Amino acid sequence: MNPESGAERGAAGPGAGTPAHLPAALPLLPDLRLAALWVPPAPLGPAALPQSDGAAPAGDWLDVVPLPGGRLALAVGDLVGPEPRPGAVTGLRTVLRQALYTASSLTAALEQVERAASADEALHGASLTIVVVGPDGRLEHARGAHPPALVSGPGGIAPVPGQAYGPLGVGAAPPVPETAHLAPGETLLLYSDDVVEGRGRGVGQGLRPAPDVPEDDPAALCALLAARAPRGGVAVLAAHRPLVPVRPLHLVLPVDPFALSPLRESVTRWLEAAGVAPRTVVAAPMVVSELAANVIQHAYPEGATGEIRVDVALTVAGLRISVADDGTWRTPEAEGPDGIPDPADERSGFGLAVVRDLCDELVVEPGPQGTTVTALLAVDRPVAVGETPRPGPAAAPEAFTVHTGDAGVLYVQGDVDLPAVTALRAALLAAAAGGVRCVLDLTGTTLFASAGVRLLHQLDPGTDLQVVAPPGSVARPVLELTGLGHLLSDRAESA
After folding, report:
1. Which of 38, 41, 170, 231, CA to CA, is 20 to 30 A from 494?
2. Which Pfam family, an example, fits this chain (predicted)?
């Protein structure tokens, strides 16, 4: 087994390990550089500010799912509720993965996820943004009650255009995918809704990368977005499409033991340029060298001429190393216990035993025209786990109030978060009784969290509701980003 796999997954950052509701690691790819960051929420307590939606620390989640044809599915979502059932997020990720593997299209996969969410109360109101990235940069994306993915490039950061749909499991129509394109040099960003729920901040504010943030550094962009949620409880996923992808390494060597040292040096330089972690940089050159030495010892008679072809490439499955020859392998003359070659015999082929210990998979394909040996090493990057924010004395929530004004308008002040939803629901139902038009004025809100989004989506479709949230208000961008923009009164008047 490649020591890189377990070692790198354990080095997830300040959090000392990747939580179970996040992927164990991110694949290392030639044409897409990935980074992910999860920051735990600030602890609840006398001096701590409650989370915006009251969700447990595992409410925000992300996932990366390799798909056939060189495609990669990226997803970020949120589970709302005071105490999400243990394992609910893991269950939702499992449902999504199975749907992506088995469905004929992203549309069909999202329909499967919607059915599963409808049948599980713990998933009611869950939000989701998903993007499937093709090898040519083609994006297929959809979102339900969640902010849109962003694209960062030379011109700044902008949302991926697309329709917003309602949350999962509450009777809203499943999200319908749309298409876009990620150009070389651009970075795709997916993030928790906490990033846009902050007080007094719209989605378009503060989203320009700082001058010292490299545009081609997905990890730095993750940190930039996560900083917009100072109370933590945020997940960010970034995928950078490099201007020049990592090209496979192809070398042709003579059958000469003195060629092994330059071979190791060439492979090491290629791995470092590809951004492979240090432990693999040590293991992979040794694997290549052992396989090439095995060819020199066993494939060609002493003094014969020939060539050794070496290919190294990054794939979704890992680092693939292939060593091929045109000779005929000689049978080892001695074996040790259990069929393992005897290291005391120079012709024993013990190099293959060493390679088996260093890699995750080894395939030997002999043939009349030569032999090809392929080794696979798992290479990946960890999901970074940030430090839990420290609660501060200024982290006091704005008091929530709702009262009826002139003409029956409901005026809301303060934070619309999970504790406020019960009172707001009662006020809305009372105001809309008898089928009369209800006007909800959110101008004075200082926070409009996902619990409020779910409430508005769960209202009876026959409810005649208009929402006042003028440009510049906290609630307006959240409504627009989560499929509730049609409720805005100024839009209804201009329609």
Report:
1. 170
2. SpoIIE
Q: What is the pLDDT of residue 14?
A: 39
Residues 218 and 139 in one domain: yes
Nearest residue to 274 (alpha-carbon basis) of 321, 226, 237: 321
Same domain, 220 and 258: no
Residue 238 lies in a domain: yes
Region 456-479: mean pLDDT is 88
Contact 22, 62 (CB under 8 A): yes
| 341 and 297 within one domain | yes
DSSP secondary structure letters along 321-332: EEEEESS-PPPP
Q: Is the pTM of this model over 0.85?
A: no
Q: Which residues contact 86 (CB under 8 A, 6 or more apart)?
A: none
User: Which CATH number is 333's domain given?
Assistant: 3.30.565.10
pLDDT for residue 252: 97
Q: Whole domain around residue 169: which residue ranges?
A: 31-244
Distance of CA 396 to the CA centre of its chain: 32
Q: Which two tokens stand for residue 211?
A: 């001058």
* Pairwise CA distance, residues 98 & 249, whole Å: 34
Look at residue 24 and tell me if it is in a domain.
no
Q: What six digits make up the tokens of 422? A: 């019960």
94 to each of 90, 100, 116, 190, how far by Cα in Å?
6, 10, 11, 19
For 26-53, the pLDDT digits (tens) are 999 999 999 999 998 876 544 343 433 3
Judge if 155 and 299 occupy the same domain. Answer: no
Least confident of 32-36, 54-58, 208-212, 275-279: 54-58
Task: Provide the domain count of the chain.
Answer: 3
CA distance 96 to 350: 44
- Which has more confidence, 320 or 82? 320
Cα–Cα nearest to 128, from 77, 91, 74, 61:
77
Q: What is the pLDDT of residues 258-274, one digit of tens each?
A: 999 999 999 999 999 99
Look at the block and give the residue holding tokens 């072809």. Answer: 309
Q: Residue 288, SS3?
A: helix
- Give the HSE-up count for residue 488: Cα atoms under 13 Å, Cβ half-sphere: 21
Q: At 415, phi and psi to the nearest 5?
A: -90, 120
Which residues are within 8 A (CB) of 258 and not within 5 positions of it... i.e. 6 or more apart?
none
Query: What does the alpha-carbon distance between residue 455 and residue 419 come to, in Å, rounded to a whole number?
Result: 12
CATH code of the domain covering residue 446? 3.30.750.24
Residue 234 sits in the same domain as residue 316: no
41: its two tokens: 């929420």
- Residue 291 inside a domain? The answer is yes
